[in-house]
C-alpha cells in the first residue's frame, strides 16, 4: 500500500497531499475548490465541503487519510457505493475496508483486527453500524484520527434526505473523543449548511462551497400528459442517445414496469432497486458497468450508488420531490467531464405522489390523536399493545387506514409516547456477534444451560446464525423449556454482546404516563414545520419544471451560488428548443467542461 508520509504533527501537508494524489490516484493536481478543502483537512481543522456531484469530494478525505497517522472512519449511507469506493481504493493499493450488514461476524472481526493493528487506513461504515455498541466501543479503543461524514445533508431535518440515524452522528462523534471531522455533500442550501455545523458541533470550521454549476450538462424538461406518453418519450430518447444512460423511477414497482417497457422497445435495460436480492442487484450493476446493458432503471437511493463516469443521459421518468434530489441524481451524468444530457419527463400529477409521501411522513394532528386514543383503548395491564400495523389498521376507523396508522405510530414512537417492541411470541431472530467456540469458551461457571442453548441453536440452523436466522424457540427442543426458559438466556447473551436478537412479532409499549388522558408529548409545531419545509421543496421542484427562464440559473440561485448568469446556452429555455439531441461533439464545448475527478 502507499506509504503514509506525515509531518511531526501527524497531519501531513498540502505538498505531501499533491504527491499522493499524483502517485496513488494518477491526477496531476487538485482542482481549485479541492485545494482549499484539502488544505483545511491536512491542517487539522474541521471542515464542511459542498462540492457538486462529480466534483471529487471523496479525494478531499481519501488523500489526507493517506498523508496522516492513524485511522480514518468514513460514514456513508449507501452500501453499494461504499463497496465500489473500497474496491477502487484497494485496486490503487490503499488499505481500505467496509463494515455493513452484508458481512459475517468473522469478516467484521477480521476488519476490526486490522484497524487495531494499524494496517487499515480507511474504514467505511453505515451510520446504523456505528450505533452498535460493540463496533463503537472497539473504535473508541482503536482511536479515530479523522471522521468523514459523506452525504452530510442527511443530518439536517431541513435537508431533502433527512435520516434519523445521521442525526445521532454528533453523539457518536462525542463518544469517539471528538476527532477532527470533515462533512461532505453536493446538495446543501445555506440553511442546511448551518444545521450540519450545529448538529456535528464542528469547531473552527472551514466551510468550502464550490460552484454548483456542472458546465458539461445540458438540461431539458419534456412535458407529457400520460404514462404511455412518458414511456414513448423515454424510448425515443434512449434510441436517440446510443450511449450509457440511467433512468430514474420513483418506486420499485415503477422500476420494474419501466424496465419491461424498455425491453419490449428493444432497449437493453436492467432493473436496479432494493427489492432485488444481492445477487440479482450485483448482476444488474455489473451488466451496466460492463455495457452488456446500455440502460439501468433505478430508484433514486440505489441509482446514486452507480458510479459510471461515461453516463451520457439521465432521464427522470417522474418528477423528484425536491430540487436537491434532482440535482444530485442528474449529476450522475458526465462525471468524466464530457458533454451529457439530463431530461425530466414532467407531468403535473407527479406532484400528487410526493404530496402523498409528505402526508405519510408528517401526518395531521387529528390522525395522530385518533391513533393514540386507539392505542390507549387496546393496551393490556403490562402497558403493551401487541398488534402489527395492519392489525391495528383493521381496528381503526375506516377513515384512518394502514398508511395513516403507520405514519402516526412513527411520530408517537419518535416523540417517546410509546416504543416499538417485539410481541410475546416464540419466534425470534438471532445473530451471533462472535464465534460459537469463543462464546462457549467464555460461558464459564454455572452457565451450562446457556451453553446447551447455544449448541441447540447451532444444531437447528448452523452457520446461518452468523448472518442472522429466525428460530421458533417453542419448537427448538422439548427438553429446553420453550420460549419462557430460553428468552432469559438470549437476554443474558445479548447483555454480554455475544448475540443480538428480536422477536419477529410486533408491538408497542406505552409510556406509563399514557394513563393520563391529557398526556401526549408530540411537538406539533415541529411536525407542521417539517411538513411545510417538504412542501416548499416540492414547490421549488415544480417551479423548475415550469419556469420559462434559464433552468441552470434557477438551480444555482436555489443553492445560493453567487456565480449566476441569466442565460447559459445549455438548457432547453436558453437554446429555444424542446427537441432533445445528443451533444454535437464530445470535444470541449465553448462553455468549458468539468475536469474528471
TrEMBL record:
Keyword entries, A-Z: ATP-binding, DNA-binding, Helicase, Hydrolase, Isomerase, Metal-binding, Nucleotide-binding
CDD domains: DEXHc_RecQ
Reactions listed under catalytic activity: Couples ATP hydrolysis with the unwinding of duplex DNA by translocating in the 3'-5' direction
Domain Helicase ATP-binding, first and last residues per copy: 38-206
One GO location term (cellular component): replisome
A single GO BP: DNA recombination
EC numbers on record: 5.6.2.4
GO molecular function terms noted in the UniProt entry: 3'-5' DNA helicase activity; ATP binding; DNA binding; four-way junction helicase activity; hydrolase activity; metal ion binding
Ranges for domain Helicase C-terminal: 216-379
SUPFAM superfamilies: P-loop containing nucleoside triphosphate hydrolases
Tree of life domain: Bacteria
Coiled-coil ranges per UniProt: none
NCBIfam families: recQ_fam
Family: Belongs to the helicase family. RecQ subfamily.
Protein's name in the database: ATP-dependent DNA helicase RecQ
